[in-house]
Design goal:
The protein is mainly beta and 384 residues long. It folds into three domains: 141 residues, Immunoglobulin-like (Sandwich); 91 residues, Immunoglobulins (Immunoglobulin-like); 93 residues, Immunoglobulins (Immunoglobulin-like, Sandwich). 9% of the residues lie in helices and 47% in strands. It contains two helices and 28 strands. A six-stranded mixed β-sheet has the order 4-12-11-6-7-8, with no helix packed on it. The termini are far apart. It is a single-pass membrane protein. It is found in: Membrane. One of its GO terms (cellular component) is membrane.
């Protein structure tokens, strides 16, 4: 560095200043020449004003340094390695990401684009008074978590399998928050945080004993982080569980009568789907009748009669097993059903009861009359 100085008394300066012409040369950079004023002791200097800043990795950081009522004294920004970035409006470090935003006697603002974690640290703004006054601003860079991955899932699963689902996200700073959801309902996982340089890798695990009710269930791993201001990162996996079938039979009417239409539907549940199904009657084949129709899972009786009575079985099979359900058909005669109560019969029964009661009263009266209506205590005790 070379410099020369002269003391000037000029009407443009409100105090005695030292005018300095300075040349700065650094490795790999062109030499810069700049003339600036240093306030001499006793001059009205000002402290630079800066602010800490937080930016997301890959974003843009704007660093601003201000002074009030500056008397043409120069401002400078330097990085955490104490390399000069800008000296006034002169760029000192060859880095295409660093640009000048504004340079006046009272402000020096620069921008750093495509910020990386390596840019984090303490930046210094210097005001070249005598002595030099500085202010420090800390640049915090947030590491953005990567989209989470869910490991440990194989397809298809079998009912009874025990599995461990692990959600992994890396690159976050500070450590990201990882949460699990089962069909949008939050469930708790086991969390593990590991540091890797300046960033963190976060894992969360779920242990599951799967059954048929887990077939089609969606498990979502969601990552929340301060750098994800408007949204969150998430990954979803849907379980496919294979299980042996179970069967139920649905019927169209509760109490079948002769001549009625009846439909029996075989509803098998299983994965893979047990299709087709097999209908049998009383352990044998179905009767070959025009009015008995089998279409897929449905067994239809166009017009019932008592010859249709019997036990009907629906059987379903997949590669994991076989299951069946039974329906006992009893066809009733609509004419044999109990009718409304017979009021004449009821009246006759009441009349018989009344007549019997009157006869009993008459017989008892005659008996008492024969004994002259008297009875000693012993008699009554024997009678009563």
């Amino acid at each position: 560095m070379s410099s020369s100085s002269i003391v000037l008394f000029t009407a443009s300066c409100r105090a005695v200043v030292l005018k300095v012409e300075c040349s700065i040369c650094c490795c790999g950079c062109e030499c810069l020449s700049h003339t600036f004023c240093l306030s001499l002791p006793g001059a009205q200097g000002q402290f630079p004003i800066v602010q800490n800043m937080t930016v997301t990795e890959g974003g843009i950081a704007n660093l601003t340094c201000r002074v009030e009522h500056n008397d043409n004294t120069s401002l400078q920004w330097s990085n955490p390695a104490q390399q000069t970035l800008f000296f006034g409006d002169k760029k000192a470090l060859r880095d295409n990401r660093i640009e000048l935003v504004r340079a006046t006697s009272q402000e020096l603002t620069i921008s750093i684009s495509e910020v990386t974690l390596a840019d984090e640290g303490m930046y210094t703004c210097s005001l070249f008074t005598m002595p030099v006054k500085t202010a420090k601003a800390f640049l915090t860079v947030l590491g953005v978590p990567k989209k989470p991955e869910i490991n440990g899932l194989t397809k298809p699963l079998l009912e009874g399998d025990q599995i461990t689902l692990t959600c992994v996200t890396s690159g976050s700073k500070p450590a990201a928050d990882v949460r699990w959801f089962k069909n949008e309902k939050e469930i708790k996982g086991a969390k593990e945080v590991n540091a890797s340089g300046k960033t963190f890798t976060v894992k969360s695990s779920l242990q599951l004993l799967v059954n048929r009710h887990d077939d089609g269930v969606a498990y979502t791993c969601r990552v929340d982080h301060v750098s994800l201001t408007a949204t969150h990162e998430e990954t979803t996996q849907v379980l496919e569980v294979h299980y042996a079938p179970y069967v139920e039979i649905k019927h169209s009417i509760p109490a079948p009568l002769e001549g009625q239409y009846l439909k029996l539907e075989c509803v098998p549940h299983g994965n893979p789907s047990p299709d087709p199904v097999l209908w049998t009657k009383d352990g044998g084949e179905l009767p070959d009748l025009d009015r008995v129709i089998v279409e897929g899972r449905e067994l239809t009786f166009m017009s019932l009669n008592k010859t249709d009575n019997g036990t009907y079985r629906c059987e379903a099979t997949n590669h994991l097993g076989t299951s069946h359900a039974e329906y006992k058909l009893v066809v009733k005669d609509p004419n044999a059903l109990p009718g409304p109560p017979d009021h004449a019969l009821i009246g006759g029964i009441v009349a018989v009861v009344v007549f019997a009661t009157l006869c009993l009263i008459i017989v008892l009266g005659r008996y008492l009359a024969r004994h002259k209506g008297s009875c000693d205590t012993e008699y009554w005790s024997n009678c009563c």
